[in-house]
Hints:
By secondary structure, the protein is mainly α. The protein is built from six helices and no strands. It has helices at residues 20-28, 32-46, 51-60, 72-83, 85-113, 115-124. Helix 4 packs across helix 5 and helix 5 crosses helix 6.
Amino acid sequence: MNGPRTSFYRDKQNAKLMGICSGIADYTGVNAIWVRLGFVGLVFMTGGGIIPFYFIAGFLANKKPAHLYVDSQEQKFWQRVRQSPARTARDVRASFRDIDRRLADVEHYYVSANPRLSEEIERLR
């Protein structure tokens, strides 16, 4: 089951017609102008056969919630998750390993200079 940040939505805030192209742009992280140009190209290549699918998607897709993302950094994170969940999970694990290493360095620095603190930490483990 997809969560609210990994689902496709019509983006009515940035829409030109129904918000499908801007929704695709938001979902994939591609600039909306390129999605719109691609759609126009598909219209010409299919002789207009794709237009009914646009309207069907417009009626079936939910409207994007107003406050889906806190900021643009969070939006970019969720776009990366949708593009490659495995790579994103690796990046998050690597960040946690880096944080763990830094905390270990800080602990080592303070413990080596303070034997009483070292004894207290060992006692807590």
